[in-house]
TrEMBL record:
One of its GO terms (molecular function) is oxidoreductase activity. Coiled coil: none annotated. It comes from Profundibacter amoris. One of its GO terms (biological process) is mitochondrial respiratory chain complex I assembly. The chain crosses the membrane at residues 6-25. The lineage of its organism: Bacteria, Pseudomonadati, Pseudomonadota, Alphaproteobacteria, Rhodobacterales. The keyword Membrane applies. InterPro entries: FAD-dep_OxRdtase, FAD/NAD-bd_sf. This is FAD-binding oxidoreductase. Pfam families: DAO. Residues 8-364 form the FAD dependent oxidoreductase domain.
Length: 395
């Protein structure tokens, strides 16, 4: 087709990041013509939809703590932020907290340093000795624990798809157009992108382009002869029944042995990073069921004897948009393409970061600088220079 359209902003990817950016841009400047391009508006295989939908302040970099603190405020007050156009009254925030377990002197030092920084930023993270940990969670085995950090306030989980739906509906209410299509080419000269070509619709001219393509972020950059260290990494999540370990008030626990666990009513959700973690095929969403008996169940039982009897009720696999350089987000203007903005590589914590990152990208597009949270530590320059800015608390 030879159709030609022109927009002020074209956003490639309509899941949580793209929809957040669209919401904030249209809120800050209602006169903008904004188009969001999304190949699958069901979002069935998006990282957003397959997330375990949690939020925490327990990060090791200050900017991530600031991002999450705004995200928590947004999640708790979603109706106020999105307004009636979002159609969301509540995200059902379950404030059970997050619990990180340290099993070595080195990781204990990291926990102590991170806790001090988090509290300076306004979090209420507590450090728990093994005795204090056992007193609070008597169902845990603490024999090998050096220290734990616990965020009892403003940490937990929520309804991921209602947040996505709210962003999208509010953006549409504010005039944003969403289009089901796929980007097949991008053209540009003199460090500026001029247009994107779509599989079905034709050519779209845009003053600004935002790459919010999730695990396909690198594919978009390759159309410009560039690249990103972002690739899909598969994570299999298990829903299990453990009749001897029913603790619906338990926090989301991140164990130093490599797994996480949280309650889901009277059941549990859990996952483990595979030992041979590697780039996943884009169409591989088959759960790696062997991981439960081979790797995960022994670690669960070692951590809590109540997991002696366990039944897997269901399992699903999702993909992280994994930043192989430093497992931190890549946010900001691309130095080689002055009207290209990136929000990519969130490595499993994008959902909780979407409210603040969408706002930040909107500020950058409209004003040329961040006005609320300074996200420059997560800028694209470090990627182009191969200069890691590592986030150590990756789950």
């Amino acid at each position: 087709m030879n159709n030609v359209f022109t927009y002020d902003v074209v956003i490639i990817g309509g899941a949580i990041m793209g929809s957040s950016a669209a919401f904030w841009l249209s809120r800050m400047n209602p006169d903008l013509d904004i188009l969001v391009i999304e190949p699958d508006p069901s979002y069935a295989k998006s990282s957003t939809a397959l997330s375990v939908a949690s939020v925490r302040q327990q990060f090791t970099t200050a900017v991530n703590v600031e991002i999450s603190r705004f995200g928590i405020n947004f999640i708790k007050n979603v109706q106020v932020w999105l307004g009636q156009g979002g159609g969301v009254d509540s995200l059902g925030f379950q404030e059970n907290g997050y619990l990180f377990l340290s099993g070595s002197a080195q990781s204990e030092t990291v926990l102590r340093q991170a806790c001090a920084m988090q509290c300076e930023k306004g979090a209420q993270t507590e450090l728990l000795t093994p005795d204090a940990l056992k007193a609070r969670f008597d169902w845990l085995n603490v024999d090998d624990i050096h220290l734990a950090s616990f965020g009892a306030k403003d940490e937990g989980w929520f309804d991921n798809m209602s947040l996505l739906g709210g962003f999208r509906k509010a953006a549409q209410h504010q005039g944003v157009k969403f289009l089901r299509d796929r980007v097949v080419a991008i053209e540009g000269t003199n460090s500026r992108i001029s247009s994107v070509k779509l599989e079905s619709t034709g050519t779209i001219f845009a003053a600004n382009i935002i790459n919010a393509a999730g695990t396909s972020a690198n594919d978009i950059l390759e159309m410009l002869g560039e690249g990103l260290p972002v690739e899909p990494r598969k994570r299999t999540v298990f829903m299990i029944d453990a009749p001897n370990a029913i603790h619906p008030d338990a926090p989301l626990m991140v164990c130093h042995s490599g797994f996480y666990l949280r309650p889901e009513h009277n059941h549990w959700i859990c996952a483990i990073v595979p030992k041979d973690d590697h780039r996943a095929e884009k169409d591989d969403f088959e759960p790696d069921l062997h991981l439960f008996e081979d790797s995960l169940w022994p670690k669960l039982y070692e951590r809590a004897p109540g997991f002696d009897a366990v039944k897997v009720l269901s399992a699903w696999a999702g993909h992280y948009a994994y930043n192989t350089l430093d497992q931190n987000a890549i946010i900001g203007r691309h130095q080689n393409w002055h009207n290209l903005f990136l929000m990519n590589g969130f490595s499993g914590h994008g959902l909780q970061q979407a409210p603040a990152v969408g706002r930040g990208i909107a500020e950058l597009v409209l004003h040329g600088a961040y006005q609320t949270i300074d996200l420059s530590d997560l800028g694209v320059d470090r990627i182009l220079e191969g200069r890691p800015f590592a986030e150590k608390a990756i789950v």
